[in-house]
Fold each of these.
Amino acid sequence: MRNIRHFVKMVKNFKDNMFTKHLLITNTVSGGVLLGSGDVIQQVFERYQGYHKGRRYDTMRTWRMFVVGLLQGPPHHYWYTWLDKVFRGKDLKTIAKKILSDQFIAAPFFAITFFLGMGYMEGKDFGAILREFNKKFPYVYLFDWCIWPPTQYINFLWVPGAYRVIYVNAVTVCWDVFLSYIKHREQFEKDFTPMEAFFHDVELHHEDNIQEVEGTQKKALKNVYQVP
């Protein structure tokens, strides 16, 4: 029992330190780990779809995502700390102000820093980074409006301040998979824009389902009527 109590105390002290004294470090590391994890999931999904045959897993791509996530961790940390100080309370009006501030200030900033960081680590010049950003930002920002306002409503209403960035990072896994998809898709689907490639995949999946159903129907008819 003494060992169990000692272990529980150690866990509690660790949690208290990570979410109070060392909260900045926690938020920074989690940002890098989760952005990197989003790319891992996306690469696994790409391979499942049949891309990258005969090629090894792109560890440098995941490393770049991890580093950019680390770099965005401190701004995320200080941003939400600032929001809580400026907009106090959990009434609907205050939450709306936080969400709108997040969408109109934080969302463009983190999109810009994402493409800048990834582009420079890929060896691109500023002109190439700017062209990529202009091409892909509308898709990123549109999806941002779909996922983040409801997420942030829950965040600002119910999530304690110390766990706010962790909660956002957890939802960010889905967001990071999308970012990895938008960022890297044209590398192996050059004939499509990012969104066109997405809908192309949906269309192919639909066609595969139709062909599978038609094949099943033909087999059934052949068994019933013995049609050669």
Amino acid sequence: KTRMEHKVFCTLVITMILGLSLLTQGEDTCNVEPKKRVNCGWPGVTEQECLDKKCCFDTTVPNTPWCFSPEAIETDDVEPGEHCNSNSNST
């Protein structure tokens, strides 16, 4: 019984860590300087419509897009934009 409780506890801890890391990742990708924001919406777009498009929504900075593309997450093994061409070299 103790061994099973330990497995359940470990599973819960791992699930919580993964959930928190996803939340943190989302916040980091929406931390885009206002002058670097790329519009992802249209005039009158609602927050929910913006989020449904997997975009970021922030109304706190005037004269900038409120619905904008998230910042790209760069990895060591893929250059920015490389993922778009990943199938072009395969035969």
Amino acid sequence: MAVRRLLTILLQFAISIMQVLLGLRIVFKMVTASEGVFVQWVYSLSDPLVFPFSRYFPDTMLSAMFYLDLAAIIAIILYTMVGYFLLSMVAKPKEWRKRKYYS
């Protein structure tokens, strides 16, 4: 029981950190922030999370000064869905074992 609780806490923490990093990346890209140590730190930490999607979803220019980082938006949605799926598996493992995917 304690291991399941610890896994739940760690998963929630990882999901939250990922959401904050990608959310900051979306805001910084939208206002074209590239200067500053903190902005570069957020970009360097979030680059591995966005990399799988960046080739398929490039940045889109909304106006002369605003960019929309579609790869980061797709990444935050997919990683959050996967994270909550894993949380549901950890929180209620007996329900997952009872399901039968065959006839």
Amino acid sequence: MQPDVQEQPLPTAPPHPYPRHARPGAGRLGWLIPLLVAGAVLAVLAVAAVTVLVLVLRTQSPPPPVQLTVSGTMLVRKSCFAIEVLDSTGYGDVPGSQVRITDGAGNLLGIGDLPRSGTPSGGACAYPWSVSGVDPGHEFYSVEVGRRGKLSYPRADLDRPVSTSLGS
């Protein structure tokens, strides 16, 4: 028989006066982790914003330069038949003539052509023309149709078609 031995509980350490998470000194660096996380989030957001801004600015192309289209009609006061078929009027050089637009200093700004066939218009023959891509930055322009001389126009007059005529 064995003597009655009572098992004694092992001695335990006295309870600590503060819970582990609330010990004095443990909170000194507790602010560092949230601060680092917030800084990392802000850095990622800043990089994303700069990337989006660069991509948006890179995809936006500058507006195309504004250009002027100068148009008009050369009216020859003879029948189209007499001009184009009979060539009996002295205006046989008009159909298909070159239209030249120059600035006030005589610099060439654009070239177009009259059609080879005109449109009958009340006993006369009309030749419409158009010259696009003309620089709008000049005060005065000259329009020359074929070898028939230059006519000068202020810039404001070229916002609508100009009319020139030959014959009586």
